[in-house]
Every structure is written in C-alpha cells, then in structure tokens.
Amino acid sequence: MAALAVTNAFVAGTNIVASQMNANFTDVVSWATGAPTISTSGQTTTVSGKLIVTEEIWSSDDIFLNGAQQRIVWEGSSADANETYLGVINPTAARTISLPDATGTVALTSDITSPTWNSADNILTNSVFN
Fold first, then answer.
1. DSSP run (H or E) holding 28
2. Which DSSP symbol is given to 20?
3. Adjacent-strand bridge partners of 41
4. Is residue 120 part of a domain?
5. Whole-angstrom Cα distance, residue 55 to residue 124?
C-alpha cells in the first residue's frame, strides 16, 4: 500500500471539528471501504465504519462495546476462517468478572469432568487435571 499523500499535525489541546477531520483525511476515505467518518458530540468522538489498528490500543479507563455483537475477536497468527470470540450474554445488572493475578489457563465448566470437594480445606479440585 502506498503512503498517504496528506500529512496533518495538530497541537495538543487544539479542538478539531469532525468536518475538518473528514476534509483533511480525504486519502483515508478514498482507500477505505465503507467511507468511514469521524464525528463528535460533547466528550464523545465516533468513528463509523471499520477502525483497524495494527499495533496496540491503550486505554486509561474502560473500553465500552455497544451494539448487536459486542465481542472481542482474535484472528490468530494466520488469517483464515477460524477465530476466537469473547463475548457476554445480555446482562440484567452491572456485573464484574475478575481474572486472577496469575499465569495459567482459564478452564471452562465443560472442562470440569471429575470434581472432588474437600470440605476440610474448602477446595474443589478436578481429578482430570491433578
């Protein structure tokens, strides 16, 4: 892919209006599918169309997913028909799922085939993994 012909520099703290962004980034719109646009409303900036990031996304706070398919998708090392999806079922209240500060594999309930309860130590083990 050829380099974009338009280069823009903005000073930190400068307000940028959506119409200026769309006008200044005409090259992006011309090679992107779906004619993406940028718009603002209050404190929110909206990108419509696909936003593909090839490096990293850093957020200092929550990342909010909204829509019919609220999922995180991993393609894997080869672009094929196989992906891994992480999603939630429609919540009926505010929920928090915390992952432990540890390295390991998160098991699915279908992985627990032979549970053993140790009531003296209050520990549930799966004999398949022990």
1. helix 26-31
2. H
3. 44
4. yes
5. 40
95 pLDDT band, cuts 50/70/90, is very high
114, 126 in Cβ contact below 8 A?
A: yes
Q: CA 41 to CA 58: how far, in whole Å?
A: 22
* 117 vs 30, residue with greater confidence: 117
End-to-end, the C-alpha distance of the chain in Å comes to: 52
pTM of the model: 0.51
Does some domain include residue 87?
Answer: yes
Report how many domains make up the chain. Answer: 1
> Measured between alpha carbons, how far is 76 from 61 in angstroms, rounded to an integer?
26
Q: Is residue 53 part of a domain?
A: yes
| Domain extent for 80 | 18-126
- State residue 31's pLDDT score: 43
Are the beta carbons of 22 and 37 closer than 8 angstroms? Answer: yes
Q: For residue 11, is it within any domain?
A: no
